[in-house]
Amino acid sequence: MKQRATPRFLLLVSAFVVCTPGWGQEAARFTRQRMAMVDLITAHGVRDSATLDAMRKVPRHEFVAPETLTRAYGDHPLPIGYGQTISQPYIVAFMTEVLRPKPGMRVLEVGTGSGYQAAVLAHIGCEVFSIELIGALATSARDRLDRLGYTAEVRHADGHHGWPEGGSFDAIIVTAAAGYIPPALVEQLRTGGRMIIPVGSVYGVQNLILVEKRGDGDLRTRNLLPVRFVPMLSGIR
Amino acid sequence: MTALARILAVGFLSAGTLAYELLLVRAFAIEHFHHFAFMAIGVAMLGFGVSGTVIATVRDLSPSRAATWFIAASLLTPVALLMSPILIHRIPLDPTQLPVSVAEIPKLATVYVLAALPFAVGAAAVLLGLTASTRHVGRLYGASLIGSGLGAAAAIGILWLAAPEPALALPAVLAGGGAFAASLTAQRRQQVVLATLLTIGSLAAFRWPPWEFTITPYKELPQVEAYPDAKRTAERNSPVGWVVAVEAPAFRYAPGLSLAYRGAFPPQRALFVDGQIAGAAARWAADTASDAVLDWLPSSAPYSVVPPERVLVIGSGGGTEVWNAVAHGADDVTAVELQPSLLTLSRDLATVPPAWARSRVTWVSGDARNFVARTAARYDLITLAQGGGYGLAAAGVHALNEDFLHTEEAYAHYFRLLTDRGVLAITGWLRTPPRESVRTVLTLAQALHQVSDGPTARQLIVLRSWGTVTVMARPAGFSDREIATLAHWARSRQFDLDWYPGLEAPQSEFNFIDEPILYRAADAAVRGAESAQQFAAAYPFDVTPATDARPYPHHFLRATAVADLLRLETGSWLPFAEWGYLTLLATLAQSAVLAALFLILPVAVRRGRRRGLGPLVLYFGAIGLAYLAAEIAAIQQLGLLLGHPVYAVAVVLSAVLISSGLGSAWSDRWGVARGWAAPLALAGLFIVYAVFLLPLVHQFQSASLPARAMVAFAALAPVAFLMGFPFPLGLRGFQPEPDRLAWAWAANGFSSVIAAPLAALVALDAGSPALFLVAAAGYAVAALVWRIEGSRPG
C-alpha cells in the first residue's frame, strides 16, 4: 500500500505545482526578462546567432543565489558567494562570441563559478571542460548542470595548470582575472585556437585579452575591452 | 574647579571624537576600500552639524540647564563610541553591490547613522559646554581644538603600538576621561562612579575588542589565505598600513610576464597592505633556475640597453625589481620604500643564491622624493612602477591619493640623478583606453625639456606587452645599436615597441590595440610642449602631466566630461574604472542634500526666529569652509616636505588644531569691534601661502627630518593661531544667545562636512594653491559679512 501511495502523492504535488498560477507566471516573467536581456546584448553589438540563441534558452535565474533572483536578468554581475560573481550577461555573450563556438568544439573553461558560462557553451554543443578552484562551487555547479541537463565536465582543481590530460583545446575561456597568462594554458591551446582572458591588476579594472596561437607557434594578443572580474585564485580550497 | 573640569572634559571628548574619525577611516579602509571609507566617514561627519540643529530647536535653553545636559551628553559619548563600532560590525553591508542592489541602501543608511552617532553626541556635549559657560567661549572652544589635535596625534600614535582592531577602543577611553571630568562639574557621586565604570569598560574593550573586522572577500588577502596549506607568517602594524605576509605553495606573482616564458617559478610569499596585494617575496634558488623568470618581465627591458652598475628602485614593494637588478649584474642597488613594514618583510623574507651576494643592496625606508633631494649618488638606472606611491589616504585622513613620485618635478629630479648613460624606466598596466601610460609619456617628455637641450625624439622608448607599458627615457639619447638590441630582446619575448627614435609610423607585431594611442602620444610629446598640450586637450581623459601643485597622476576624469563619457557605449564600465572620483561626487551630493535638509527644515519649523540668521549662517559657514580648505591644502603641500604621510598628518593636524585652540583661547582678550580684522588678515595670508608655500617646500626638501618638521610647524603655527579667532569672536559678535550659538555651530559643522569633498574636488581639478585661494575667499566673505553687519555685532 505504501509503495503505491507515494507515486500518487508525488503526482498530486506535481499537478499542484504545474497548475499553480504563481509558478506559471514566474516562469513567463523570467522568459520575458531573458528576452529583454538578449535584446540589450544585441543592442550592445553581439551578433553571433548561436551565442544569442543559447542566451535566450539557458535559464540564468537557475544560476544565481536566491537572494539575487529578482536581479538575475539585469546586465550586471551578481555575487554567488566565496567572493565570486556570476558575470554580467553582456560579458558572457561577448566572450562566447569572441571564441567563435561551434558544436563539437573542445572548450576549456577556467573558473566555473555557478556554471552559467559552461551551460551556455554546452547549449551550443561544445565539449566543455570546466575547472573551479572553490570546492563548494565546483560541487554545486556540477549538480546544477546535471539537474538542468547540460553536459559539462567540472573539476575541482587549480586553473593555473589547465587540464593537462585533456589534450589541446580549440578554445580556452578564463572567467577570473590573473596578473599574468599561465604558461600551461598557452601550451594547452591548439594551433589556430583562441583564448580569452581578463588580465591586469588583480583587483581593479582588467583588460579582456584575446590570445590567438598562430601556425608558427607565435602568439598574437588583442586588447578587447576593460572588464572587472573576480580574481583568479591559485590553489584549491 | 567647575570651569577647569569643563575645559578638561571638552578637551578629552573632542580628542575622542577626532580619534574615532581617523580610526574608523582606517577600519573601513581595511575592511572595504578607501573610497568607501571616505564616503562613509564624510557623510557621518554630519553628526557634528546635527547636534547643533537639534539643540537649536530647544526653546529657552538656560546655562544651568545646559550644564546638566552637558554632563549627560558627556556620559553618553563613550557609550556611543563603544556601541557604534559594535553595531556597525553586525551589519552585513557589501559596498561593492551598492550600484546594483537596492537592498544594500538601508544597510548603508544604518551604517551612516551608527557612524554619525558618536560625532553627534560628542559635538552636542561640547556645544552644551559652550552654552553653559558663555563667558569663556574662547577658552572652551580652544580646549576643543587642542583636544582634537591631541586626539589626532593619539590616533596615529596608537597605530604604531596596536593593531587597528583594538585601537578602535582608544576613542572611548579618551571620551571616558572626558565623561569623568564632566561628572566632576556637578560633584554627584553616581555620575562620578558611572564615568569611572565607562572608562574601565573602554579599557577592557581595548584589551578584548567586542568587534571583529571582516575583510571584504573581494580583497586578495582572504582569497590567498584560503589556498591549500596557506598560513600567515608575519603581521606588522603602522599608521600607513597593516602589512601581512602569507605563505601559500600555489601563490604566484609575475605581473606582465611574457607569453613566451616556459620556465620555472620561484616559491613566493604574498605581501599585503590593508588586505590588498603589494608584492611577493621570493626564494630565489640557483638550482631551479627560477630567476630566469625575471628576464621575461617587461620591467627588464632597460637591462638589454645598458647593463647597469648602480640601480635605484623607487617603491620597491615586495622586492622583485631589487632582485631583478641584482640578477642582471648590478653592483650596487638602492631600494626606497615608503611603507616601512613592507620594506622590512620584503628584505627579510627573500632568500637569494650565494652568487647574488656580490651585489651591495641598500634598503631605505622613507619617501623617495626626500631621498632623491638629498642623495649625492648617481645611477645608471632608476626604475619605478606607475602606481607605486601611497597617498595620504593611507593614513586615514582623506582619499585624495596624492602621489608625488610621478609629477613633472619628480621626473626632472630623477633625470638629474642619472649618469651620462643613465636610463629612467617606468612600468605599469596598460588600461583601456590608455591613461596612465599616456600621462607618463607626456610627463617624461615635459621633464626632459627641463633637463636637456637635445632633441626629445632620441630620448624616449615605449615598449608594450599584452598588458603592460614600459616607458624608458634617457637624456643622453638612445643609439641605433641599442635600439636594435632592445628590438631583438623585445621580439623574442613577443613585446612590441610603440615608439623609438627613428620610428615613422605606428607598428604592432604581437599585441594589438584599437588605436595607436601611445605612438600618437609619444609623437606629439617629442614635437614639443605645444604639440603635447594639443594632444592632451583633445584626449577624452585628462592626461596632462601631474605637478607638485596638483599631484594626482591617477586622476583622469574631467568633471565636465563625466556625463559625456557615461553616454558612450562603453560608459557602463565608468563607475568601476574611475570610481574614486565618482565616489567623491556622490559624497558631495549626499552631504549637500543632507546638510540642506538639516539646516532648512528646522528653520522652516521655527518661523518666528529666522531674523538675522542669514548673515550668521553665512559667516560661520564661510569660516568652516575656509578652515577645512586651508587644512587640506596644508596637508597636501607639507606632505611633500615631510616625506611621510604619518608625519604630515601628525604635524599638520596637531599643529593646526592646537595652535587654533590657543588662538581661540587668546581671542577672549580681543575686542569684538575689530572682529573683522582676523578673517581679513587670514584672507591675505592664504593668498601669500598660495604663491609661496610650495616654493618653500622645494627649498627645504633636502633638509633633515627635524629641520623639515620645524619648517612645517613654523609655516603653520602662526596662521593656525589666527585661524582660532573667527569662531569665538563670531559667537561673541553675533550675540551669544543659546539658539544662535547652536545655529552658528550647525552652520559651521555642515559647511565643514561639505568642505571635505569639495576641497578634494578643487584640489583634484585645480591644485592645492587654488585650495588656499578658496580658503582666502571664505575668510574674505566672513570679513565682509562682519563689516556689512557692523552695527549688529558687539
Topology:
The complex is a heterodimer of chains A (237) and B (794).
Chain A: H1 2-19, H2 21-43, H3 49-57, E1 78-81, E2 84-86, H4 89-98, E3 106-110, H5 116-124, E4 127-132, H6 135-148, E5 152-156, E6 169-174, H7 183-188, E7 189-200, E8 206-213, E9 219-227
Parallel strand pairs in A: 3-4, 3-6, 4-5, 6-7
Antiparallel strand pairs in A: 1-2, 7-8, 8-9
Chain B: H1 2-31, H2 34-44, H3 46-56, H4 63-88, H5 104-132, H6 137-161, H7 164-167, H8 170-186, H9 189-207, H10 220-225, E1 231-238, E2 241-247, E3 268-273, E4 276-282, H11 301-305, E5 310-314, H12 320-327, E6 332-337, H13 340-349, E7 360-365, H14 368-374, E8 379-385, H15 408-416, E9 418-429, H16 436-451, E10 460-464, E11 468-473, H17 480-492, E12 496-499, E13 511-512, H18 517-527, H19 529-538, H20 562-567, H21 574-577, H22 579-605, H23 613-642, H24 645-666, H25 677-699, H26 705-723, H27 726-733, H28 738-766, H29 768-788
